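How a chain folds remains the central question behind the approach discussed here. For one protein, we set the task of working out the structure tokens from the amino acid sequence alone. The sequence in question and its structure tokens are set out directly beneath this paragraph.

_____
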Amino acid sequence: MIGKLGKKLGFSAREEGPDWEARNRDLVEVIRAGDLPRALEDGKKMVEYVDRKFPRDAPEKATTYNNMGMIFLMAKDFEMAGDAFQDALAIRRRLLGERHKEVALVLLNLMELYRLQAQDILMETRETV
């Protein structure tokens, strides 16, 4: 079962391998290293994996979608980052309620997304004025 984010990414390949925790650790290391091309590739594979392996409201999906949001944010793909963060937020709210630290973390990521979007707009308009 592929989720909304997986559909937007257009998955077709199916691969098996290490469990979710090991894959997640590896992905986080790639994100922290700032290797954007590899993070995009590995992140897309991870989304496909969790969409296929886990139920709709699995915490692993929320974490993976949040990580994918960070990757898209690094790539300045603000629309896809917003979609990924919103999907992560919806799952965490359903699982944990409104007032949980994991919900707050995604909200902070959304705040950073909006800050960067605003900064990008201001820089763009400054150049044209």
